[in-house]
Write a structure and sequence with these properties.
Layout: E1 4-7, H1 16-31, H2 40-46, H3 52-63, H4 73-93, H5 103-113, E2 116-120, H6 125-136, E3 146-148, H7 161-170, E4 177-181, H8 184-191, E5 197-200, E6 215-217, E7 229-231, H9 242-250
Parallel strand pairs: 1-2, 1-4, 2-3, 4-5, 5-6
Antiparallel strand pairs: 6-7
Helix pairs in contact: 1-4, 3-4, 4-6
Bound molecules: xylulose-1,5-bisphosphate and magnesium ion.
The site of xylulose-1,5-bisphosphate has 18 residues, from helix 1 and helix 8.
Length: 251
């Protein structure tokens, strides 16, 4: 029986990566006097590593860019990432990043039906509340019983820690929940916590391996703007709603 929907944020609720996080990283790099620039395809490669601080460290270690002499690399990365978060929040405030089709509809439907809502993401907590406020209004973070985000768990996705943490905090079994994800890393994280997961793809993740997902769709669909189903069972009229999600859990 479906008790809760667990939303991933980046790529799932909104297309935040290409026009949000990537742009914010580049603004922070420029501000710090670095000659680094993450173009769209480069950023696609770097998305293999989740977490902004982890992504910067991976870039330094595997792409060997010019890095200033610093005493404490971890602290330097944290400072650079903090500047990136400030730029990202500003982009959200400017209303640059809309929710993906069907996200606001499904959230409204769940609230009406008393289905519990949570966020399970690798991104920084302020980024989640910033996106929700900018797109759904100032009180919308309160609609989510739990915002499980960022460094709250030691290992980020694809590790299952964030899902284990969420189930424990909400006192739920995995089979009472369904996760919405957009990437192979997200699917692995949910599946390794036994959480049933469906996927809505985006340009960066369309080629990912979604083995273990119950279904894969282009998006959540809206009445009159149906989603296409790429794997698994298709919802009626191409609209992923509560009845469809409940049906998936009862199979
Ligand atoms: C999201 C991420 C995050 C964002 C950047 O993955 O990997 O790192 O790209 O956010 P998922 P921060 O959608 O699987 O949660 O810079 O705040 O880490
Ligand atoms: Mg994601």
């Amino acid at each position: 029986m479906l008790q809760a929907i667990l939303f991933d944020v980046d790529g799932t609720m909104a297309d935040t990566e290409r026009d949000g996080h990537r742009v914010a990283f580049n603004l922070a790099f420029r501000e710090a006097g670095l000659d680094w620039h993450w173009d769209v395809p480069t950023y696609g490669d770097l998305l293999a590593v989740t977490g902004g601080k982890e992504r910067i460290r991976y870039f330094i270690e595997s792409w060997a860019p010019k890095v200033p002499e610093v005493e404490d690399l971890t602290a330097w990365i944290a400072g650079l990432h903090k500047a990136k978060t400030a730029h990202y929040l500003e982009l959200l405030r400017q209303g640059e990043i809309p929710l993906r089709p069907g996200v606001a509809r499904l959230i409204a439907e769940a609230r009406q039906a008393g289905v519990r809502l949570a966020i399970t993401t690798t991104t920084t907590p302020e980024n989640v509340t910033g996106l929700l406020r900018a797109t759904l209004g100032d009180d919308s973070p309160d609609w989510f019983e739990l915002i499980a985000a960022g460094d709250i768990v030691p290992a980020k996705k694809p590790a299952p820690d964030i899902y284990h943490y969420t189930l424990e905090q909400m006192n739920l079994s995995a089979n009472e929940t369904i996760a919405l994800e957009d990437s192979a890393n997200g699917v692995r994280s949910a599946r390794d916590a036994d959480v049933p997961v469906i996927v809505t793809v985006n340009d960066y993740t369309a080629g990912d391996d979604f083995d273990g997902a119950i279904a894969v769709h282009t998006d959540l669909g809206e009445p009159g703007e149906p989603a296409k189903t790429l794997a698994g069972s298709a919802p009626e009229h191409g609209v992923i709603d509560l009845d469809y999600l409940k049906g998936l859990l009862e199979r």
